[in-house]
Write a structure and sequence with these properties.
Layout: H1 36-60, H2 62-65, H3 70-93, H4 102-130, H5 140-152, H6 155-177, H7 198-273, H8 282-313, E1 321-324, H9 325-342, E2 346-349, E3 357-360, H10 362-378, E4 385-393, E5 396-403, H11 410-413, H12 428-432, H13 439-449, E6 453-458, E7 464-471
Parallel strand pairs: 2-4
Antiparallel strand pairs: 1-3, 4-5, 5-7, 6-7
Helix pairs in contact: 1-3, 3-4, 4-5, 4-6, 5-6, 5-7, 7-8, 8-13, 9-10, 10-13
């Protein structure tokens, strides 16, 4: 309809999705999961390069580095194993790398990614042991894999990946310490006493430079994807704002066009009830009175929609002035006293010396008060009481409407101020009460537009206290600050 639910911002991640692991909202696919297949293929290519480099190092540079004999063979075997499982991963990921299939392939690709990280840790652990163990500069690649898993996996899986890295590191460190793993000491990879040799320095420089480059490529590419997704979300937000503006304008036109014929129909029905068109029988009178009741409800609904459209389109700051809350409360009580007397309710304003001056739009503040009072009357059984209290605090004016009504459960209180929500459907009194479910959401919208807040304190079967707080005139320097 063009208006937003109170407190409901257009946000790609709903609060209920926080910490939910795989239970993310579909929009998150745009930022992360949608490109998971392509990220896997990028890592496949990087893994082929790593396997080839490892094999080349073993075959051509084994002796200069200080690896010989069985060490060379084991490095070649590790490189071949990496190439084999990497080929399997490529075969699994490539058919599912299309972002259009991201939703259906997401869970499977995450399993493939987790398996690939596990295999990488095993291969890296063997490689680190062969190339220096606890003294090997290749230990830093554990950190690189932790960074990858933290970017690409949900939090629980990323935590498991970190634990795997810690476990593999412990195998190398403590296995060498306790003699379970024989120490491998390639001359160019182990820092000897008496200073670092040129081969050790060159290898360390080459390894860490490569690690920096790989990390930079990964982070920059992911950041680029996030920026592209952010720009797309901003564009969609602008489109939605434009659409919302069009809907608001349409709502204003529709309300104007509907109001005139409804007013005319109401006038004609009242004329018939007064006998302008001739005498009516009891059955005809009953039917016309029922029609008038439904028409009055429709007019109330249209009035609420008009108020909502005002909040969306009008510049409230230009219409704000000093508003005496106590005066408005007395106005509302005079208007609603007849409805209270029909149910034999005691309706009163608690004695107060306060005037309750706030800075606001009088008609809107009055609408908020009236909604609280009519709701209290509606949901309070016959013979009950409704009292209103106005109190002045530091920089605020607080209004409380207390009733001895049916009360509200804690579960219902959490959604009470949402649009079109009606609670207590199991209670006979609540079933009889007529309404659109817009009243309380309207109160919240009005009060928040004035810089205030609303709330409720209630226990089922023991009545309710609805309250609102608005900034007092003392807290506002004038229209410019309002």
């Amino acid at each position: 309809m063009g208006f937003r639910r109170p407190g409901h911002a257009m946000n790609p991640t709903d609060r209920t999705a926080q910490g939910a692991g795989d239970r993310r909202l579909p929009v998150m696919l745009l930022v992360h999961d949608r490109v998971l297949g392509r990220r896997l293929l990028l890592h496949v290519n990087a893994r082929y390069v790593a396997a080839g480099t490892l094999a080349l190092l073993a075959v051509t540079a084994g002796r200069p580095v200080g690896v010989s004999g069985s060490g060379v063979r084991w490095l070649v075997i590790v490189a071949c194993v990496i190439a084999v499982y990497n080929t399997v991963i490529r075969g699994l990921a490539r058919p599912r790398s299309d972002p259009a299939r991201a939703t259906e392939a997401r869970a499977f690709l995450r399993m493939v990614l987790l398996a690939s990280i596990l295999l990488d840790y095993v291969a890296l652990t063997v490689t680190v042991w062969l190339l220096g163990g606890t003294d090997s500069p290749f230990l830093a690649f554990y950190l690189f894999h932790v960074v990858i898993s933290s970017f690409l996996l949900p939090r629980p899986a990323a935590a498991v990946s970190v634990l795997l890295a810690v476990g593999c590191l412990a195998v190398v460190v403590f296995g060498e310490l306790w003699g379970v793993l024989p120490a491998a000491n390639p001359e160019a990879l182990v820092h000897r006493e008496g200073g670092a040799g040129w081969r050790y320095s060159a290898v360390v420089f080459a390894i860490y430079s490569s690690l920096f480059a790989l990390t930079a490529v990964l982070v920059i590419s992911l950041t680029h994807l996030l920026r592209v997704a952010e720009m797309e979300n901003q564009r969609k937000t602008r489109d939605l704002e434009e659409l919302s503006s069009m809907r608001r304008e349409y709502l204003l036109v529709a309300l104007h066009d509907i109001h005139s014929p409804i007013g005319l129909v109401g006038m004609l029905l009242r004329n018939m009830l007064k006998g302008v068109c001739g005498p009516l029988g009891p059955a005809q009178t009953s039917q016309l009175e029922r029609a008038m009741t439904h028409l009055d409800r429709l007019e109330t609904f249209l009035q609420e929609l008009r108020t909502l459209s005002q909040l969306d389109t009008a510049n409230l700051a230009d219409r704000m002035t000093e508003v005496p809350v106590v005066f408005l409360v007395n106005e509302v009580l005079d208007q609603e006293r007849e409805h209270a007397e029909v149910k034999d309710l005691r309706l009163r304003l608690e004695p107060t010396d306060a005037v309750g001056l706030v800075w606001g739009v009088p008609a809107l503040v009055r609408e908020a008060i009236a909604n609280y009072v009519t709701n209290a009357i509606k949901y309070t059984p016959e013979g009950g009481a409704v009292s209103i209290a106005v109190r002045e605090g530091p920089g605020t004016v607080r209004l409380e409407v207390r009733d001895t009504g049916i009360g509200i459960s804690a579960e219902d209180q959490a959604r009470l101020f949402r649009e079109f929500v009606r609670v207590g459907r199991d209670n006979p009194l609540a079933k009889q009460a007529k309404g659109t479910g817009l009243g309380l959401s309207l109160v919240q919208r009005i009060v928040e537009a004035h810089g205030g807040r609303v709330g409720v304190e209630s226990r089922l079967g023991r009545g309710s206290t609805f309250w609102l707080e608005l900034p007092s005139c003392q807290a506002v320097s004038g229209p410019a600050t309002a």
